[in-house]
Amino acid sequence: MDKIMICGTDLHDRNLVCRVAVDRDEPRTRAYPNTSLGKSSLLDSLKRQARKHSCERIAMAYEASTQGFCLHDDCVDAGVECFVLAPTKIRKSKRDQKRKADEKDAQLILETLRGHLLAGNELPSVWIPDDATRADRETVRSRLDLGRKLTAAKTQVRTLLKAHRLRKPEGTSANWTKSYRCWLGSLCGEGQWPALATLVRQIEFVECEIQAIEGEITSLSETPRYAEPYRALTSKLKGVGLMTAMVFLTEIGDMGRFPNRRTLGAFLGLVPSSNESGEKGDRKGHITREGSPRLRYVLCQATWSRVRSDPDASLVYDRIVRKNPKHKKIAAVAMMRRLGIRMWHVARKAQVRCGIFAPEQMTAGVPTA
């Protein structure tokens, strides 16, 4: 049997703590700075140790984090297999959670990877998007971030007006109309109210940025990578617009990586948790909330729009609500899951027709050299 050099890495902003072992041998601890030079030193050390112990393979794993996939890319370029693991799916005892240390975390990652390579255990690895998908995600996510900033600024304005017992004038039908903005301008004109003037300027700036980034996203939706799936989603499903479709396409990427609708529902975090051990029977709890919260956010927005505009969706929602009128949120979650699954079916067929994702792109952790 070929020997394998196995490395479990605990990745932080400033350092890398590694536990390195050959097959079932006792691991050793190594620490490197999280810099280009430090990563190069780590990879060179792994290669030297692999030659010394006549190892045919070198495999590394680390937990997904805000560090992104830079370490994964460096490993693949150097000919080292690299797996990025989902932190929420790595089994940790309560004792491990209370006694957290970098070396212990690296050891746990090492044991998880070793169990996969030597015993065939399931490895909780994440899908690695290509460079184009990562760039597209950043563009779409920036629009969502701007939306949150705009909502926060508008909330601050309403709070400020409420603190001074000010109400919008008669004849103003809704907030943030042209007449409402003119009224705000009259309140903060000529330096009378600096705090309100600052918030109004922030809102105007963010709205300009939103308009600009939405133009970029519209152009992105017309590229060959997204044009066919985007048109299919927005034309066949009511309530699905630009942001819902593009967030769905960029966050998921390759629709073919989900074998069925159940795995997609689990990825979206829209399936109920369960506690059915022993004689407890069918006991369901809150949804798991795994996966991307951005996806759940846009699905929630699209679901309510769909219920209002689509008679068929409205009938389904009413039917679920009639079963238990007190649990309207459960009906909303069910509609979100149904919409996500329908979007997945439509987008997957469109991607198959276009041949967007090649089979080799579905493999995570395999080096290119």
Structure, described:
With 369 residues, the protein is an alpha/beta fold. It folds into 3 domains: 3-119, Nucleotidyltransferase, domain 5; 131-220, no CATH class; 227-358, no CATH class. 56% of the residues lie in helices and 12% in strands. The chain has 13 helices and 7 strands. The protein has helices at residues 36-52, 70-77, 94-98, 102-119, 131-163, 178-187, 194-221, 227-236, 242-252, 261-268, 293-309, 311-323, 328-354, and strands at residues 3-11, 15-22, 28-33, 55-63, 81-85, 272-274, 284-287. A 5-stranded mixed sheet has the order 3-2-1-4-5. A two-stranded antiparallel ribbon has the order 6-7. A hairpin with a 5-residue loop joins strand 2 (15-22) and strand 3. The radius of gyration is 25 Å and the shape is globular. The chain starts with a strand and ends in a 15-residue tail after the last helix.
